[in-house]
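Deliverable D2.4 — example input (structure tokens):
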């Protein structure tokens, strides 16, 4: 405990003492960035104009709901986070935040975000957010993650809901356009995470998480990445000919999917006898490209929506 009777101007912190940043880290801010952006695209790409204040509130509550999911995920996964190098410094395994604090924060933010999103927009959007939190925490984190190598495939639905929630917040319904954005994120998730798993396999081995790299090996994972990338490319380019697509989106999709297919092919043809350093370089490059991939596709959808406001977007 800090001695307030001293005249020292330096702040001292006891080892393990939680700071504001530790509680914020529980919300997985980097993941929240993707949630916020895709939800914002869903909101703004909808054909119904939304008052700026209502739109701000909707995105804020969706972001809080995403953060609540992260806190509950860290609460449940504290045991495996402790043995994985990538996650060992998170607030709970590092001893800076108690598991009960993370649980309480996650539950409180979950209720707050769903209720207030429903009040600010409509109850379909609030219900979809509640289902997304439930799916991520219960279906994925508590069940799928530790029980099947298809954890990322099925569990990826949780990360694919935000654009649908944004669309529902604007329109009060779920249209085919929202489903397309959901599918785009859903199909992107497996190759994105399997690439990460390829160069972080020892972490999943140590934690006993049945990631595809652990249960079926590197070669099978590379085949799966290629297959999903081909399917994703067909979906992404095909979306360019729908109402949320257009010439700008199609140009972005063709270029990026060409690069993504090239990266998946390079991973597929890797020599298993090659040095791990060479393999990791290829897999990390694909993983970094996958981050740009989704942001660029949704950015192009947003740009097409903006052009459409002036009668310039789409194929009309």
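Example output (designed residues):
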């Amino acid at each position: 405990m800090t001695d307030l009777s001293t005249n020292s101007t330096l702040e001292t912190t006891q080892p393990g003492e939680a700071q504001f940043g530790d509680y914020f880290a529980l919300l997985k801010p980097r993941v929240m960035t993707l949630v916020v952006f895709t939800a914002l695209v869903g909101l703004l790409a909808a054909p119904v104009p939304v008052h700026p204040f209502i739109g701000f509130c909707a995105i804020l509550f969706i972001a809080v709901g995403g953060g609540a999911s992260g806190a509950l995920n860290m609460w449940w996964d504290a045991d495996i986070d402790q043995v994985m190098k990538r996650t060992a410094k998170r607030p709970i395994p590092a001893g800076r935040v108690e598991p009960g604090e993370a649980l309480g924060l996650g539950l409180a933010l979950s209720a707050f975000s769903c209720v207030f999103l429903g009040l600010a927009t409509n109850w379909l959007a609030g219900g979809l957010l509640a289902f997304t939190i439930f799916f991520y925490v219960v279906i994925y984190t508590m069940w799928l993650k530790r029980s099947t190598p298809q954890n990322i495939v099925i569990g990826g639905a949780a990360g694919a809901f935000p654009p649908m929630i944004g669309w529902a917040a604007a329109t009060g319904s779920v249209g085919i356009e929202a489903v397309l954005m959901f599918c785009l994120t859903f199909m992107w998730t497996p190759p994105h995470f399997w690439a990460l798993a390829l160069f972080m396999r020892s972490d999943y081995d140590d934690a006993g998480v049945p990631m595809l790299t652990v249960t079926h090996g590197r070669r099978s994972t590379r085949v799966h990445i290629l297959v999903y990338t081909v399917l994703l490319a067909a979906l992404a380019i095909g979306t360019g000919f729908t109402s949320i697509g257009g010439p700008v989106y199609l140009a972005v999709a063709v270029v990026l999917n060409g690069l993504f297919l090239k990266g998946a092919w390079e991973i597929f043809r890797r020599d298993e006898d090659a040095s791990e350093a060479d393999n990791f370089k290829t897999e990390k490059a694909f993983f970094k490209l996958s981050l740009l991939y989704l942001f660029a596709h949704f950015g192009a959808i947003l740009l097409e929506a903006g052009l459409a406001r002036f009668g310039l977007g789409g194929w009309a």
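Residues 106 and 194 are 27 Å apart (CA to CA).
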